[in-house]
Amino acid sequence: MSHAQLDPVARQRLAVAAVDAKIAKDLTWQEIADAAGLSVVFTTAAVLGQHALPKKAAAAVADLLGLGDDAARLLQTIPMRGSIPGGVPSDPTIYRLYEMIQTYGTTLKAIIHEQFGDGIISGINFKLDVAKVPDPEGGERAVITLNGKYLPVKPF
C-alpha cells in the first residue's frame, strides 16, 4: 500500500485542485471523461476522490487539467471511500438523495427481496447514469439510474 493510499487528505487536496483546474479551463465533466476514455460518472467520482483511475486514464486527466505527474500517480491510488462526513448531509442536492433513500429505502429493499430473494445489490459491479429529460408539465426532470449486480446470500 502506498503512502498516498493512507493519506485521504492528499486525495481531498487533489480533488480541490482538479475542480479549480476544471473551472479555470472551462471544461465539463464529460470532456474530462472523454480524455480518460471512461464514463462521465466513473471519471467524476474518481476525480472527486471516490475511485482509482487506470494509469492511462489518470495520465490523460492530469495532463488535461495541467496537474502533473504526482497528480496522475495519486489519481491511481485506491481511495478511502465515502464522501459524506458526519451525519445527515447538509448540501441540498445530496440531502434530497438521502431523503429519498430514507423515504423509499425500505420499499426498495422489500421489492428487491421479493423479486430476487435474500441478497444485496453490488456497489462494485455497478453502473450509474444521470440524464436530463423534459417534464411534460414544463421544465426538466432528472433521471437517475442505479444498475447493480444482484448478489444472493449463499448458504454455507
UniProtKB/TrEMBL annotation:
GO terms for molecular function: cyanate hydratase activity; DNA binding. It comes from the Bacteria. InterPro entries: Cyanase (IPR008076), Cyanate_lyase_C (IPR003712), Cyanate_lyase_C_sf (IPR036581), CYNS_N (IPR048564), Lambda_DNA-bd_dom_sf (IPR010982). Its EC number is 4.2.1.104. SMART domains: Cyanate_lyase (SM01116). Residues 83-156 form the Cyanate lyase C-terminal domain. Keywords: Lyase. Gene3D superfamilies: Cyanate lyase, C-terminal domain, lambda repressor-like DNA-binding domains. CDD domains: Cyanase_C (cd00559). It catalyses: cyanate + hydrogencarbonate + 3 H(+) = NH4(+) + 2 CO2. The active site is at residues 96, 99, 122. Catalyzes the reaction of cyanate with bicarbonate to produce ammonia and carbon dioxide. Belongs to the cyanase family. HAMAP family: Cyanate_hydrat (MF_00535). This is Cyanate hydratase. It comes from Mycobacterium asiaticum.
